[in-house]
Amino acid sequence: MIRAVFSREVRLRFAVLTALCLALTLGCDGDPVTDAGPPPTDAGAQDAGTDAGPEDAGVDAGRACDGPPGLYVDPDCTIVDPALEPFEPRFELWTDGAHKDRWIYLPPGMQIDTTNPDQWVFPVGTRVYKNFTVDGIRVETRLLEKTSAGVGVAAWTARTFLWNAAQNAVMDVTNAAPAVRENVLGTNHDIPDGATCLRCHIGQNGNDMVNGFSAFQLNHGEAGVTLTALNAGRLTAMIPLANAQVPGGADDVAALGYLHTNCGNCHREGGDPAAALRMFYMRLLVGQSATVEDTTTFRTGVNVPSSITFGAALCRFMPGDAANSVAIHRASTREPGVLMPPVGTEVVHEAGMTILRTWVNGLTVLPDAACTP
Fold first, then answer.
1. How far is Cα 287 from Cα 227, in angstroms, rounded to an integer?
2. Omega before 247 within 30 of 0, i.e. cis
3. CA-to-CA distance for 161 and 175, rounded, in angstroms?
4. Is beta strand 170-172 parallel, antiparallel or unpaired with respect to 305-310?
5. CA angle 41, 46, 52 (to 5 degrees)
6. Mind listing the pLDDT tens digit for each residue in 308-335?
7. Interatomic CA distance for residues 263 and 355, integer angstroms
8. 2, 6, 52: which is closest to 27 by C-alpha?
9. If you count DSSP H runs as helices and E runs as strands, how many of each does the chain have, helices first?
10. Peptide bond into 54 cis (omega under 30)
């Protein structure tokens, strides 16, 4: 009798231990791949957008990090998955002073289709992360993941994550109310709604959603992924570095690069319909600008009358007269209905305005200027 009771007790303990071990191995939902925690079982290399979503967040204590799926591999959300590659655009996109860190995951053995060097098409499985930090506080992470073949919005999954105050977990706010979250974590940073994001990430007419990871932006010698590195077998067609150089002197390069980044995503052929209608293009094109005067920015902006005027400001860029240049006037204010860019910023970028004013004031004044008052 004693032996029988003891045997049942042993069997019971063995069953409990077995169940516990199985739970630790499989995770709470029984999936040995998606919830097993630290790499290599859940580094997020192939499935970040499929099974690491908000429905799993904070459920499984074995998870590496309750941060953005596939980004960090430690419980404190500080060690980035080594499968991700950092990159830094050459020219700054102004977002009210927020610091940004960026990483990309390109599936091993896959190439970016650069048949059109200005419209890269990324392979399925590509993931692009961008962290926003304000005053040392991580406030937002954005994730673009290409989940199906094709080009544009339908081929990508876009997600936005809000960090908690402890900086050790995020909440997926992609489709959560409110649509716009203002001054998150006590900072001046706003998280926009999806429609606003798409105004900059126009996924149509050959543009594959990703901004900032392109020929001109990666043509530098700094750390992270560069055009030189990508030319070593990761592009379907190599892009000569000389074809992705911004022409002109230092002032030209600074201004044309600034406009390319902060205005060119909408002001380009196939971009935002309203901008395209006005035919005011500020996106640099690979291999098409040997001189400053060859750029679309110069041809459609300098000494070109504006359909919107402000006093003596009649020209988009008035050579030698930044104070009376419509484009600079609009970029220098946050007045509703006047400001440019119309979304994504609430604070004038004074350093950027200095770059633009210096450039325009240095342009040769034409005696037959079409928009001289």
1. 14
2. no
3. 10
4. unpaired
5. 70
6. 999 989 999 999 999 999 999 999 999 9
7. 14
8. 52
9. 10, 8
10. no
Contact (Cβ atoms closer than 8 angstroms) between residue 127 and residue 105: yes
What is the arithmetic mean of pLDDT over 101-126?
Answer: 97
Taking the C-alpha atoms of residue 94 and residue 66, their distance in angstroms, rounded to an integer, is: 28
Helix or strand run (H / E) with residue 85: strand 85-86
Q: Which two tokens mark 61? A: 């204590």
pLDDT at 27: 35
- Which tokens hold the place of 318? 């008035």
Residue-wise pLDDT tens digits, 30-73 = 333 333 333 333 334 444 644 333 333 333 445 568 999 999 99
Segment 226-237 shows an average pLDDT of: 98
Residue with tokens 């007790």: 9
What's at 21, amino acid-wise? C
Opening angle at CA 45, ends 44 and 47, nearest 5: 60
Q: Which residue has the tokens 């936005």?
A: 160
Instruction: Report how far residue 32's alpha carbon sits from residue 26's, in angstroms, rounded to the nearest whole number.
Output: 4
Domain boundaries, the chain: 23-81, 84-239, 246-361
- Rounded to two decimals, the pTM is 0.81
Strands of the sheet containing 156-163, edge to edge, are 85-86, 99-105, 127-134, 137-146, 156-163, 170-172
The pair of structure tokens assigned to 323 is 């104070």
Task: List 170's β-bridge partners, or say none.
Answer: 163
3 state SS of 190? coil
Q: Is the pLDDT of residue 276 over 60?
A: no
Please provide the distance, in angstroms rounded to a whole number, between the alpha carbons at the two ends of the chain: 109
The two three-digit tokens of residue 333, written as one number: 């204010």
d(CA 126, CA 105): 5
Secondary structure (3-state) at 303: coil
Note the pLDDT tens digit of each residue in 168-222: 999 999 988 888 999 999 999 999 887 777 777 876 566 899 999 999 999 999 9
What letter does residue 223 receive in the DSSP assignment?
A: S
Q: If you compute the radius of gyration of the chain from its CA atoms, what whole number of angstroms results?
A: 25
Q: How far apart are CA 100 and CA 75, in angstroms?
A: 22
